Amino acid sequence: MKNILLLAGVALSGGAILAAQQPAPLALPRSAPTVDQILSLKRAGSPELSPDGRYVAYTVRATNWDENAYETEIWLADTGTGAARQLTNGRKSSQSPAWSPDGSRLAFISDRTDKRQIYLINPAGGEAEALTTLDDGVNSFAWAPDGTRIAYTAAEPKSAAVKDRDKKYGEFQIVEQDYRMTQLFVLDLSTRATRALTNGAFTVGAFAWSPDGTRIAFDHQVNTSPASSGTSDISIVTVADAAVRPLVTQNGPDSRPVWSPDGTRVAFETAMANPDYYYMNRVIAAVPAGGGAPAVLTKAFDEDPSIVAWKANGLFFSASQRTYSSLFRIDVESGSSRTPQQPTITRLAPNETSVSSNFSFSSDGSKVAFLSADATSIAEVYMAPLSGGSLAAPKKLSDANSQTRSWSMGTLEVVSWKSQDGATIEGVLHKPANFDASRKYPLLVVIHGGPTGVSRAVPFTSTTYPIDVWVPRGVLVLEPNYRGSAGYGEKFRALNVRNLGIGDAWDVVSGVDALIAKGMVDPDRVGAMGWSQGGYISAFLTTHDSARFKAISVGAGISDWMTYYVNTDIHPFTRQYLKATPWEDPEIYAKTSPITYIKQAKTPTLIQHGATDQRVPLPNAYELYQGLLDNKVPAKLIVYQGFGGIGHGPTKPKSQRATMDHNLEWFDQYMFPSTAKPATAAGRQ
């Protein structure tokens, strides 16, 4: 590896808000943050360590209220001095920084011309150069090991037949037929010539160059629908002639290939043909690059591993461990003297209570950059050497938490309780800074989505519910990691199979009861809310535990599994959790649907939903809303326009402001009437 001679003399100034080297702040009076202040926080992300470990490129996301957008720029930090400076400053966003193998250049993706294109910049400064000008932009990219080429994925252009059809009839879509596949391309940096490496009846996902740069391993599925993730296989393409050969073709999802340092094996994430891959553990397996039977490497690891990198000193992955998350190393060769499926796995964590992610290695694997947060701080960029099987003495390179030093913050702790069936459930409890154990506080329960999501003991994480506005007001907030949550192992994730909503509600209600029993909660002032799966559980509580809750908010929640099943974009999810289609077992669909129990509902319920939600489509919201109205239950339905992506949740600052403000208004009205303000959200009540 070449030295970064170009950067050796570059001075990185550290005067900006996210540079780590700043003077100690003056003591200032603390105040509760507002919704807009929380949404305006600048967030560090995507750290990428230079090949020699001397610099970290990372992104800083800022809020552009005028454009109603979150925009990111790339920053550069010196790992020796800690000084940092902003590198890009273009229109819209610059993201996904990636160092060239010799460390002399940075490639990144930017939508500054509206479409996502690949750009190249000298890390010493200067203007960025566009490498692609595709009509529909680029999805992802990766440098070739020799630094002369870049491979990327991009959607196929519209076919001539579809263009002719649109011209004749106008645009329409034939469901489950009109797919535009993503293909793999290679760009020669010296000539700017691009060649297609794949062109078939499949869509390409993640990919990786072989160490010698002659081949690329990639995963692909039959079409772009998320419901087809179970068809994902792995193939290898030879770059010189675009010849493709299958490598892994078993049932179920096989994805995210990485090469061994010597190029003889490919590791990947897989369900190993397990048909219940939505809630059962996936594993990491390795297969000879020439083909053969996969060997499972993480059979004894009871969680979902996510591959980070394969270096000479080990195969690294990240994973959740209860409410925390860490880096792990597989000593791939250690199993050879025992059984190939049981190599040694070591947890590498800066401490036992950190939430660490987005790991990036130096080329020799001796150093790693990452994000880390804990109960007192939002995510910061760190760099640490790997020494003696641990992340030794991490060095902080950003200072995102300087933005919150004048805010009144509560305390976060992980609590646990027994559910109705004896299962141990954990949750994150937010307490006001001046918490008094002799008082009884109002309690709001905020339920995460998933169900394989997880609530973590980190402040200012929610941009849908104003947790950090409520807590300084003197409110307890509980975020339960109900059965099915990630981080607690396969058996725990399977506890709500054919028990959705029912067992989940046990976990929430038992958590409320446990806090009441401890004497810290006023039982007459308890509310609940959640989005997606959390919205579904909230709807279940609305129709089951009306006497317990003063107010409930249902965000993008399922009200009727039949309605959900025929409308969602991930039909296999329902079939795996309920173990049937509605035509095979209508009883289980009815038993687990909140709408079945609508006549029991009494709790005032706010319903929030995106107009174009593909994951939990809008009919679920209208069904619950009409059922509540017909049963004389106070209800309000707010349908939001402009949610990005699949429309399943707020992605823009103004829509997040709306969901947060509307929840403040709803719970003020029904739980805190003395602080209620005139409603600004229209709707029948």
Give structural notes.
The chain is an alpha+beta fold. Strand 15 (233-238) and strand 16 form a beta hairpin. The chain contains 11 helices and 37 strands. The chain starts with 34 loop residues before the first helix and ends in a 15-residue tail after the last helix. The chain is globular, with a radius of gyration of 26 Å. Among the domains are: 1-21 and 29-134 and 343-407, no CATH class; 411-675, Alpha/Beta hydrolase fold, catalytic domain (Rossmann fold). Helices cover 15% and strands 34% of the residues. Residues 1-17, 22-27 and 678-685 have low confidence and may be disordered. The chain has an 8-stranded mixed beta sheet, with helices on both faces. Strands 25, 26, 27, 28 and 29 form a 5-stranded antiparallel beta sheet that branches. Strands 1-2-3-4 form a 4-stranded antiparallel beta sheet, with no helix packed on it.
Contiguous runs where pLDDT drops below 50 for at least 5 residues: 1-17, 22-27, 678-685
Number of strands: 37
Rg of Cα set:
26 Å
State the CATH architecture of the domain at 411-675: 3-Layer(aba) Sandwich
**Spatial strand sequence of the major β-sheet:** 30-31-33-32-34-35-36-37
Helical region count?
11
What separation lies between the terminal Cα atoms?
A: 67 Å
Mean pLDDT: 91
Estimated structural class: alpha+beta
Largest sheet: 8 strands, mixed
Shape: globular
Query: What percentage of amino acids are in beta strands?
Result: 25-35%
The CATH topology label of the domain at 411-675 is Rossmann fold
Helix fraction bin: 10-25%
By CATH, the superfamily of the domain at 411-675 comes out as Alpha/Beta hydrolase fold, catalytic domain
Reading off the top of the CATH hierarchy, the class of the domain at 411-675 is best stated as: Alpha Beta
